[in-house]
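Annotators were shown the component list below and the corresponding predicted structure, then asked to write short factual statements about the assembly.
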Amino acid sequence: MNATDTLVEVLRSEGLRVLATLARTVGDLAVAEDALSEATITALNTWPKTGIPDNPRAWLAVVARRKALDLLRRESARSAKETAAFRWGTEAAPDQIEEAIEAMEPETSLHDDMLRLIFTCCHPALGREAQVALSLRTLARLEVPAIARAFLVSETTMAKRLVRVRSKIATARIPYAIPSDAELPGRLAAVLAVVYLIATEAHAPTGGDAVARVDLEAEAIRLARLLAGLMPGEPETLSLVALLLLTSARTSARTDADGNPVTLADQDRTRWNHAAIAEGSAWLSEAVERSGGAAGSYQIQAHLAAAHSTAPSWQETDWDGIVGLYDLLGSITANPVVALNRAIAVTQRDGPEAGLAALKTIGGLEHSHLWHAALADNLRRLGHTSEAAGELHTAVTLAPGEAEQRLLQNRLRAVRSELR
Amino acid sequence: MTQYVALCYYDRNQYWDSPPELEFSPQYTEFARRATEAGVMRGGEALHPVAMSTTITVSGGKGGDVLLVDGPYAEAKEVLAGYFLLEVADLDEAVAWAAQIPAAWRGKIELRPIAPVHT
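Structure shown to annotators:
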């Protein structure tokens, strides 16, 4: 990691901590965000010359509070009462940094502030897309252009969307609070869903040419780790970290030298990130221990990812175990995609006839390229080559990303050559 | 404290010419009593069914022809049946109160923060 990367990394992780406390003190997320952005710019201009301060968080806290005070003063509508909440004036002498370190919020208070920030960004009164965008900006501290790219919208559109979300938080008075114990399970599920959605978009981008988006994948893992650190007692949070690590371990092998996608069956398993697999497995063990046998959806998915990531080859994968895990997953989430993956595992375990029968019982996937591709695979193995070509043709037209389309097109070409 | 209006919506067929909620009348009274006691209720009214309503629009903007339509806004699938004005600390508290309004059990409730009007 070079000096600039270190600087950016420190700014992102410390910035989030500063923001969490500042948002509570100011009582307005938008003002806190703007103040922190200005403080970050100041840091980017100053730190390369002075070096990263010994306590970067205290440095940022002092500067961001000063910027927030300026912002509140500029808003004439604000009462003097609100600005009086600040201890520091506009001029901060070096000894005030020391003072700030002395006055630093205790670690437990910071912990709660960060949870407040997370639950506010993922409040159910905000739409899922708004939750994801706000989480990427506020929690992952991604810049607007990067978020705009992830959503395939213009920077202006994304900037406007974020303004609207923050303004709803302020106007509708979405509380900056940790949910009560009674509400926590539902609210935590929403937070995990946001992180999972970021990871899903990273794993299978909805548009563009890339097989995977490594940048978004890293953000999802960062957020999951943050949650696990803040809520170590929640097994599903630990399972999500395990799932994301185990899945990301295969990312580099999912593309060949020409940038074309490679399916799991054909991947060079020596290219997998074995350190990430080991770490993911360790998180999973911890989650299993914490959950006391009651496996949630992320835990089952992590077990599935582990079964693939630890198999010596596609043929030597524990397909019977995988079918069992999909049965379990299907019993808690009625999702046709789960049924699809189960059917693919059935093909591996029992052969194409059983796989085809399992696929045909699934309803609601007529518009999924993966379903048509799986049908094609079984039909081809059973010798129904022209039907297989027809299904692959449908799959190509339905595939959402260019990389996926190329993969299916190659397969279609191979099947058509068998026809001649 | 923030004021929210809790707009009570029902399916338009359910609220066309007679209020469907007579069975819930005691619960409405009970809700209003508790919300008043808690100092949360700042107002509220029930509306006559939409068969009684008239929708107007001024064609071409200010000073144009006043056009009248018998009934509610034609596009809406759900119609307004009444409202409560609630004053609470934040949205979570407003949601907790709104969930106790009978309209939420059979129809839908929209919570809107009240905008301050500068005169």
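Statements collected:
1. The CA atoms of residues 55 and 69 of chain B lie 5 Å apart.
2. The two ends of chain B are 21 Å apart (CA to CA).
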